[in-house]
Amino acid sequence: MADTLIALAVVITLLGNFFSILRLVKGPTAIDRVIAIDVLTVTSITIVVVLAHFGGRSIYVDVAIVYGLLSFLGVLAVARYSEKGF
Amino acid sequence: MQDFLHVLGALITLAGSVFLLLGGLGIFRMPDCYNRLQAGTKASTLGTILALIGIGLFHPSWFGKLLILAFFVMLTSPIAAHALARAAHASKVPLSEKTVVDKLAEQETL
Fold it and tell me: Most exposed among A35, B10, B12, B95, judged by the fewest C-beta atoms under 10 Å?
């Protein structure tokens, strides 16, 4: 019962990812694409943690923490670059 | 008791995933870049925090680590959105036609 509900949650999350990827392909400006990547990475944190739950390994949660940190730094670097250049 | 906690955690995770879906939909449907930031960042932050708490109810020994991750997302997501909004405004991304007021542009012309 509970695992079925969580699998349904993953399907709904992947549907949301699909719309973000459409915006990533379509986006008229570069900033739109960076926004789509930002939302995709924040969503992927959830998917990695759910994978950790299904695999029963707590080491994947550390992977999610590092992934969030790196995506934050990447988005910040792109924002600073397009604001005034390095 | 344990079954109750598991079903509760699964329901909270499901609620979080619905918020993530709404965030993706907002990113796809909103008219300009600033509205997309608004919709995407807020909804995806709340959805991620709800999903992390829901998984934490399954594994009580992971709860501290998941709480640190939720706090981290809550801290960094608005900062990234703020920096992106400033960058979009500085690189002159056009606003949507329905925009009424642009305080930052008014401040710069003064």
Answer: B95
Contact flag A79-B72 (C-beta cutoff 8 Å): no
Q: What residues does each domain of chain B span?
A: 2-109
Cα angle A34, B19, A10; round to 5: 90
Which DSSP letter does residue A29 get?
A: S
Contact assessment for residue B78 and residue A74, using Cβ atoms and an 8 Å cutoff = no
Cβ atoms B33, B42 nearer than 8 A: no
DSSP 8-state secondary structure symbol assigned to residue B32 = S
The pLDDT tens digits of the residues spanning B19-60 come to 999 999 999 998 888 899 988 899 999 999 999 999 999 888
| ipTM for the whole complex | 0.89
Q: For residue A16, which residues of chain B lie inside 8 Å, CB to CB? A: 17, 20-25
Q: Which residues of B touch A38 (CB under 8 A)?
A: 40-41, 77, 80-81, 84
pLDDT digits (tens, 9 = 90+) for A13-56: 999 999 999 999 987 888 899 999 999 999 999 999 999 999 98
Q: What is the pTM of this model?
A: 0.89
Residues of B in contact with A76 (CB under 8 A): 79-80, 83
Report the C-alpha gap between B85 and B26 in whole angstroms. Answer: 16
